[in-house]
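Project standup — Tuesday

K.O.: blocked on the structure for the chain from last sprint. Re-posting the sequence here as requested.
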Amino acid sequence: MFAIRYTTVLILIVSAIIGFFVYTTTVHPSRFAFKLGLDLSGGTHLVYNADTSKVPAGEVADSMSALQQVIERRVNAFGVGEPVVQTEQSGALSNGDYRLIVELPGVTDVNQAVAMIGQTPTLEFKLLKQGMEASTTLADGTPNPDAFVDTGLTGKYLSGAAIQFGNSAATAASGPMVEVTFNSEGTELFSKITNDNVGHQLAIFLDGKMISAPTIEEKIDGGSAVIHGNFTAAQAKQLVTDLNLGALPVPITLASTQSIGAVLGDQAAHAGVVAGVIGFLLLSLFLILWYRVPGIVAVASLMIYVVIMLALFKLVPVVLTAAGIAGFILSVGLAVDANILIAERMKEEISAGHTIDASIREGFARAWNAIRDSNIAHVIAAVILFWFGTSLIKGFALVFGLGVIISLLSAITISRTFLLALGLKGNTRVTRFLMRSGINF
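H.V.: unblocked you, prediction finished:
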């Protein structure tokens, strides 16, 4: 009994410390503040389709990862707080379309958001086929795709860009030019291309437009190339800025936009909190009136459960959305369900004539299998939703999955410890009334 009561005191102390952490980091500015999604804080949600048709199947995942990093650098350069940039496949099959999701909290002007992402240039190097010098463009002025051969060298391998002025050693061009430097992998690929194609023209494409087609005069081992296209100083500077922020490894096109005002987000957050508080109070009232002592213990364990979940939201951290709050409230309902199941099992043991202490222990033992199996099923469902769902569904699945796991702790460990620590003995009329449910004595 001493060990049980010592554990109870320890649980209360730890819970108080966690509760103090949640309160202070919520009331006062802190790096542990709740992170709210767009539907709660307001902002812009952009969805881009990524064209991976020209990317080898084995390189699609790497290309999408590089795309995500490029867009993250571009968004972060504008100082947007807590941006979310992620990629996803529209279907579970390996040939599903790929999308880029960009969430910009606090940016409610869609045009500003689209401009912020910008048309980050897609840089490509292609070889001009022999005999096709006069057929590089079609009637409408666009490049003739049959005249060029992909080399595999793209902005994906770019490490930096800088402006050059004056005459180019490799060409007769003058004025502003842009020197691009490749990473180690790009340097090796560029060296091989120039070595194998001396005397051929290597066309440089920016966003699908050919801006230069210099002739390869010798093998280039330095890992750099000069882009010239009759740039003005301002154009060259902008191009360098764009390239340094990252040239896209795959083209993207804007598919959809959604803007949520800050007022609407505040209303959604307030409504979610109010719904949660009212629901918790009603559940607590029902548990106490119907289940008496087990109900009081269940409410105490649920309060600790809520505090632990709020702390996890701050520490993980979890980006809370309206769907996430719904998942949290649903997980509270599952925690209540577990406590009700335990209370009913204890009631059956008391009705069978067992002592209060034995009924508590046996009630938890009998309820465990059902609680375990149902919660495992819920965790599996949360994992599936998180793995295959969109960003909105993933938020719900993450909060719901965490809630189910923590609810097991509160319902089985904390509630059991608290009930045993009360030290209720015997099988008197009073103890039977305190431990049984409903209106029957």
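K.O.: great, moving the ticket to review. The CA atoms of residues 23 and 109 lie 33 Å apart. The radius of gyration is 32 Å.
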